[in-house]
Amino acid sequence: MLRDTTAADIALALLVVFSVLGFGWRSWLQHRRTGSAGFRGISGPVGSPEWLVGFGFVVALLASVTAPILQRFNLIEPIGVLRAIWLQIAGIVVAVAGIAATVYAQLAMGDSWRIGVDEAEATTLVQAGPFGLVSNPIYTAMFTFSLGISLVTPNVVAFAGLILLVTTIELHVRLVEEPYLLRTHGDAYRAYTAKVGRFIPGVGRT
């Protein structure tokens, strides 16, 4: 079993890599290509369901960072039954796979990549690469990464963040992204979502 502080250090290092590649580098690349960093912010007016979902997503990300920090300074302990070296190693592997999958899916979006939705913007409907299997491969990769981090530092805050992340992204996709894409692409989007899953191939077709 890895020491709790060592596991926390590994989780924090993985979070830094994920943040640098998934947000920093990808935003830089988007700005270089299009002149925009791709950030569109939280959708909807303050207090609306769309806004609450976006706010919840931010809280989930903060929980993912807070969990290993709390464990690093011995302010919280891992869940006993999950305190196993094989789970921690598996978590590292899963987290690294999540990082790689996130970058791959983001690159597959090309210039259509963005964080958030701008109703006045019409992006290309991407269907190639991982988007040929699921309509939200970036989110699938983020789930994978978050699960991995939760296994490396398996404390209650980490798993609460994972649950909140999955819940808020599911709601965001249903309340914000899918309605926007349907308005923008119409029948082409309907035909596309009839062929692919939402997060898992073959699951959640609409």
UniProtKB/TrEMBL annotation:
Primary localization class, coarse: membrane
Gene Ontology MF terms in the entry: methyltransferase activity
GO biological process: methylation
Transmembrane residue ranges: 7-25, 51-70, 82-105, 138-166
Pfam families recorded: PEMT (PF04191)
Any one of the GO CC terms: endomembrane system
Membrane topology of the entry: Multi-pass membrane protein
Record-linked InterPro entries: Phopholipid_MeTrfase
Keywords, ordered alphabetically: Membrane, Methyltransferase, Transferase, Transmembrane, Transmembrane helix
Subcellular location field: Endomembrane system
Listed name of the protein: Isoprenylcysteine carboxyl methyltransferase
